[in-house]
Amino acid sequence: MEFLKEEVREKEKNFTIKAATVVMFFCALVEILFVTGRIFNFLLMPVIISIIVAVVFLSGFILYRLCKDNIFSRVMPYIVTTLTVVALTVALGYMNPAFRIPFFLVYFYIILHPAVILGGQYAIFTISIVDMSYFLMILLTRSRYPYIDIQTELIRLLLLTIIALLLTLEFDKNLKRIHEIRKVAGRAEDGDLTGRINEVEEVDDISFLAKSFNRMLQGETNLVRLIIEIVGSLTDMSEQIASTANEMAASSSEIVSTTQRMTEGINEQFNELDKTISTGKTLSEVSFDVVSNVKKVEEFSVGVSDSASNAISQSDVVTNNIELIGKRYSNLTTLMTKMQVISSTINKIVNTIDSIAEKINILSLNASIEAARAGEYGRGFSIVADEVKKLADSSQDSASEIGRIIKEMMESIETVTESTEEVNTAISDGSVVVKSTADSLRDISNKVLELNSAIKNIKEMISKEEDEITNIIQQVESSHGISKENSAAAEEILASIQQQSAATEEFSATSQELVSVSNKLHEMVKRFKVNETD
């Protein structure tokens, strides 16, 4: 399992960090011991030994930093174990054999510590490294300590190896049992409750722990099965409740909407009845005003009818007068025509007189000439001729005056004639207009009579309508009271339904929350595996 591999990796890395720290501390302590022994001449070590210890220290430091920087390999625990054994063996190699036995116990710690933490394979590797390094150390330091009994050292090493192997096997067996418990616990952590620990017939804490853990898993399995059954039933019930709540909420919303529309309709009807009552009263007032105005119109139409009758009578008189004036102007026109004829005749006579006067003047002139010739004898004739000439001149002047007067009179007659024609035209037009006006007045009189009849009908209809309006207003006022009561009742019903709808919506929300909780609970228990076939 991945999490177990990750845990093993973390354990190996932590072991490497701690072991590297111990190596660095031990190497530093050895270097201090070597330096102190060299200074005080009680422990003289070759320089190569100090170099080896320094290299081991540096290697431990490098491993420490790599692990801290999360750069790790599974060979690092083997390396740090080897470095620890090498450092200890080098230190023991230059130590008096009489003092090696207490430090010899450090080998047990170096062997058993990996066995407890990492497992038997690390302990076996450490045992082999310890055996080889210690055996080489005995061989290399034999010349330095010739009195050492190699057989004793080998027996000591063999006993160390046997005891370490026995302890390692015991630790490894317990560690495997612990790993098995951890593995089953990891599966249970992931929801798999089907795993069980193999129970061995031993009386120790690990066996008791395994049995207790198995019983706990069985109890958890039974509990989860019961929870799964309950969750299934709860999910079905919550879904049914949610469905019912949603239907109730939808029905409540529809009822609220319908009631609101009904209330609005009742309120609108109530308002419309108010308007109808107001309109009816206004209409009643208007009908009263109409009746009053109709009466005025009736009175006015009677006056108009009388005025039209008087105007017709007067127009008849005007028509007769216009006809009389027309006849008189016709006579005047005839008289003017006759005067024009007489004036023309007089003008001709005047012209004749003028011509005669000119001839008389000529004759008088001839007579004067002849009288002058006759001399004394013609003097009387000359006087007569002068008188004749004066008479002719006077006649000619009178004729000229008469001609001038006749001319002016003819011009006046022509002007009067033209004016008379215009007056005749105006009289004709006026006669037509007066006749048309008389006809219009007769039509107006007839229409006024019809209007009077219609006004009487309108008065009767308005009187009937006024009675109907009064009855309608009374009925509407009665309906208005009922509508007001209905509106108040509808408002109370709407308030009650809205409260019920709010409670239904709250119940629906609660049911939805219950569904959500049951679904979450179902998702939570679904991760548990309680049967091998799941």
TrEMBL record:
<feature type="transmembrane region" description="Helical">
    <location>
        <begin position="101"/>
        <end position="118"/>
    </location>
</feature>
<keyword id="KW-0807">Transducer</keyword>
<dbReference type="GO" id="GO:0006935">
    <property type="term" value="P:chemotaxis"/>
</dbReference>
<feature type="domain" description="HAMP">
    <location>
        <begin position="175"/>
        <end position="225"/>
    </location>
</feature>
<comment type="similarity">
    <text>Belongs to the methyl-accepting chemotaxis (MCP) protein family.</text>
</comment>
<dbReference type="InterPro" id="IPR004089">
    <property type="entry name" value="MCPsignal_dom"/>
</dbReference>
<dbReference type="InterPro" id="IPR004090">
    <property type="entry name" value="Chemotax_Me-accpt_rcpt"/>
</dbReference>
<keyword id="KW-0175">Coiled coil</keyword>
<dbReference type="GO" id="GO:0004888">
    <property type="term" value="F:transmembrane signaling receptor activity"/>
</dbReference>
<keyword id="KW-0472">Membrane</keyword>
<keyword id="KW-1133">Transmembrane helix</keyword>
<feature type="domain" description="Methyl-accepting transducer">
    <location>
        <begin position="244"/>
        <end position="515"/>
    </location>
</feature>
<dbReference type="Pfam" id="PF00015">
    <property type="entry name" value="MCPsignal"/>
</dbReference>
<dbReference type="GO" id="GO:0016020">
    <property type="term" value="C:membrane"/>
</dbReference>
<feature type="transmembrane region" description="Helical">
    <location>
        <begin position="15"/>
        <end position="36"/>
    </location>
</feature>
<dbReference type="Pfam" id="PF00672">
    <property type="entry name" value="HAMP"/>
</dbReference>
<feature type="transmembrane region" description="Helical">
    <location>
        <begin position="154"/>
        <end position="172"/>
    </location>
</feature>
<feature type="transmembrane region" description="Helical">
    <location>
        <begin position="42"/>
        <end position="63"/>
    </location>
</feature>
<dbReference type="GO" id="GO:0007165">
    <property type="term" value="P:signal transduction"/>
</dbReference>
<feature type="transmembrane region" description="Helical">
    <location>
        <begin position="75"/>
        <end position="95"/>
    </location>
</feature>
<protein>
    <recommendedName>
        <fullName>Methyl-accepting transducer domain-containing protein</fullName>
    </recommendedName>
</protein>
<dbReference type="InterPro" id="IPR003660">
    <property type="entry name" value="HAMP_dom"/>
</dbReference>
<keyword id="KW-0812">Transmembrane</keyword>
<feature type="coiled-coil region">
    <location>
        <begin position="441"/>
        <end position="475"/>
    </location>
</feature>
